[in-house]
Amino acid sequence: MGLKFRLTIMSFLQFFVWGAWLITIGTYCFHAKGWSGAQFGAIFSTLAISSIFMPPLVGIIADKWLNAEKLYGILHILYGLVLLYVPYVNDPNTLYYVILSAMIFYMPTISLSNSIAYTILKNNSFDVVKSFPPIRVWGTIGFIVAMWITNLTGSKANSNQFLIASVMAIALGIYSFTLPKCPPQKSISKDASIIEMLGLKAFKLFGNYKMAVFFIFAMFLGGALQLTNMYGDSFLDDFRNVPQYADSFVVKYSTIIMSISQISETVFILAIPFFLKRFGIKKVMLISMIAWVLRFGLFAYGNPSDGLWMIILSCIVYGMAFDFFNISGSLFVETTTDSGIRSSAQGMFMMMTNGVGAYLGSKISGIVIDNYFTTNGLKDWHSIWLSFSAYALIIAILFAIFFKHKHDPSKLATINH
After folding, report:
1. What class, spelled out in words, does domain 198-417 have in CATH?
2. pLDDT tier at 367 (50, 70, 90 boundaries)?
C-alpha cells in the first residue's frame, strides 16, 4: 500500500468521524431531546473552547516528547470512547461536558493530521505542495460521506450518529499506529518561556493597526462561520412542521442537501489562486463576506418547493463564503508577518476565528434565538436567517472601511517559491 494512499485513508477518516454528527447534532438536540437554543449553543461552543487551548498544548507534546502518529492515535481512541457515552446522556448540562471532553481530544488532531502528512511526505522525498492537496481533499469527501451515511441510516435525529463516529474514530486511532514514525523534532528550546511555547508572542501583532483590525474582523466573522453548521440541518428538518412540505425530499434528506456545501468547498478551493491574483486579498475577503450575506439571505427565503433553488444556491455559495476568508486570511498572515512568529500568527488567526469568534457566535446566537425568534417551541427561521445576513452585511461594510490593504501580486508570488 503506497504512502500517499495510506495518508489519504487517514485524511478521509479524520473528517468522517466529525462529519457523522457535526451537522446533525442540532437536529438531535432540538428534535430528539427538545432542548433550547441556549442549551444547544452552549454545547456547540465546546468546539471553540477546545480550539483555543488544545492545539498549542498538543503541539508542544508532539514537538518535545511523543511521536506525532502515536499521540494522534491516542487522541482519536479517547475521542471515540467519549462519544460512546453520548447515548446515555439525557441532560444538556451533562452533554456539554461530554462533548467538551470529546472536542478536547478531537480538535487538536486536525492540525496534527496535517503535521503527520507533511512529515511523512517530506521524509519520503515527495513534493508537499503537489502531493498534499489531493490527499487533503479526501478529508472533505470523508465529511460528505459521513453526512450521507448519517442521513440514509435514519440517524440524523438520534444518538446513532455518535456511535458511527465513535467506531470509526477508534478504528482510525488503531490505524494511525501503523503509519511511519514521526518522532519529536525537539524544535522548542529548553530555555523557551511558556509564552513562546504557547505561541503567545503573536499577541504583539495587535500593536500593528492593520493586523489588529484583521484579527478583530476575523473574530467577528468567526461568529458567523459555524452558524449554518449549527442550525442548517435543523432548519431544513423543521419544514416537516409545514404540512405541504412534511414529506418533501428536503425534509427526508436534509443532511444530504447540506452536504452540497462541502462539495462546493472542494470546487472553490481550486478557484482561489485566480481570484487572489485578479482581485487581491482584501477584495477576496470582502467577496467572502458578501457570500455570507447571500448564504444566510437565501436560506431566509428558501423552501422545499418553488424556493428549493435558493436553498441549493445557498449551499453552493457556502464554498466561496468559507474558503475565501479562511484561505485568503491565512495567506494574508503568511505574507505580512515576520518569519519568526509566522506559525504563532497562524495560530492566532485560527484562535480568533475558530476559537473566540466561534465561541461567541455559538453562545450569543442560541440566546438570541431563544429570546427573540422562538414562540411555543417553534423557531422563526425566516427572521433568524435575515438577522444573520444583516450581521454579515454590517461586518462587510465595516471591513471595507477600516481594513487598509493594497494588492501586491509580488507578495503572493513569493509563497510559491
Report:
1. mainly alpha
2. very high
